[in-house]
Amino acid sequence: MSSPSSASIRVLLVDDQALFREGLRILLEQHEQLTIVGEAADGEQAIDAARFHRPDIILMDLRMPRLNGVEATRRITAEMPDSRVIVLTTFEDDEEVYEALSAGAVGYLLKASPSERVIEAIELTAQGQSFIEPSVTAKLLNHFSRLAGQETRRAAPQPLTEPLSSRELDVLKHLATGHSNKEIAAQLGIAEGTVKNHMSNVLGKLGVLDRTQAALRARELGLI
Fold this sequence. Notes:
Blueprint: E1 9-14, H1 18-28, E2 34-40, H2 43-53, E3 57-60, H3 69-79, E4 84-89, H4 94-102, E5 107-110, H5 115-126, E6 131-132, H6 134-149, H7 166-176, H8 181-188, H9 192-206, H10 211-221
Parallel strand pairs: 1-2, 1-3, 3-4, 4-5, 5-6
């Protein structure tokens, strides 16, 4: 077997269900830019595997024996910040969402997500961005809006130095509901590459690094 190219994304699968890991491996191995470097069945194994393989991306279940996914994420991201964790779980419980993201996860997907969304999430997080399930994005926005409303002396947000174009605003609104680039392209009737260009402009003008920060910043500014 030939070694993966330097451009390949190294992925570690963490889930206590062997059948699910096997199905996920088969799915991901169909994409030549992805290389599955290892698997783990619980949080303790995940930490050991992350130390050994140093993966780019870790797909992490939350509810596992011995050590849960939140604590495993916290330890891995503290020790190996270059390994980025995407939670892949059956649950979208509010508390688990906040705990996982606070522990250092940069993505949150449900196991019911379509395969193309999982692939896009891996690719985006490998590029330094984040990807959150649409239903989870809505929860996060509502959560942070409530927190902002509780701050009695909250300073007014700084206005943008360069306003967003009408098309960039369209892309931003779809982004805020958690749509992927492919889904945004289909809904706006434009090429996916064009969406990526608009997305890059949106992040730059908002002064943020990823999609989740963009959605929160847009809510703060009253753009969505």
